[in-house]
Write a structure and sequence with these properties.
Length: about 180
């Protein structure tokens, strides 16, 4: 048995469905739900942003970054964290994190493979920087040698944005309000 209740002044209708109708509604939207989840899961593979580092009005470095997943952020953080063993608790505890290295590792991890090979993992670049007095033995060393702190910060902001982190708190609150205004 079906009854419809309309709310005056709104476009929302409350409907009561039988259990069979509810089941059919769920099945009808299940394909849309699955398609949406699959699209969301593959989102990071498609989206990239081009980064241009300009100095004195001239672009000196250009590369593309992709979104990072949670485990990639954690992996970078763990590699940059120094741990000490707490004898009383019998476990290792984080002592400090090298934030400079962490930011460079995030940029390295987010750089698309093709650009990473051309820029950060290029042995000719390593040799040239080492000859110029900036010792380089890894791709993240190149990032440390080439990018200024503020430039790294702006690149990290782009990576965070395309990875789903929104630094604009006002926008986040507005989006949450829209989600809960049903």
């Amino acid at each position: 048995m079906r009854s419809v209740v309309e709310n005056a002044g709104t476009d929302v209708r409350n409907e009561e469905f039988s259990s069979e109708e509810t089941k059919n509604q769920m099945l009808a939207s299940e394909d849309d739900i699955i398609a949406g989840l699959l699209e969301a899961a593959g989102f990071g593979e498609e989206e990239t942003k081009e980064i241009e580092i300009a100095r004195g009005g001239k672009v000196v470095v250009r590369f593309r970054v992709r979104p990072l997943e949670d485990y990639e952020y954690d992996k970078c953080r763990e590699k940059c964290t120094k741990y000490v063993r707490n004898k009383q608790l019998g476990m290792k505890m984080p002592e400090s994190t090298n934030n400079v290295r962490y930011r460079s590792m995030l940029i390295y991890a987010a750089t698309v493979d093709e650009d990473r090979e051309k820029l950060w993992d290029n042995r000719k670049v390593w040799n040239a920087l080492s000859a110029a007095g900036k010792p380089v033995v890894t791709g993240t060393d190149v990032i440390d040698a080439v990018l200024f702190a503020g430039e790294k910060g702006r690149v990290i902001d782009v990576i965070d944005q395309i990875s789903g982190y929104d630094s604009n708190l006002e926008e986040v609150v507005k989006n949450c309000k829209n989600v809960f205004d049903v």
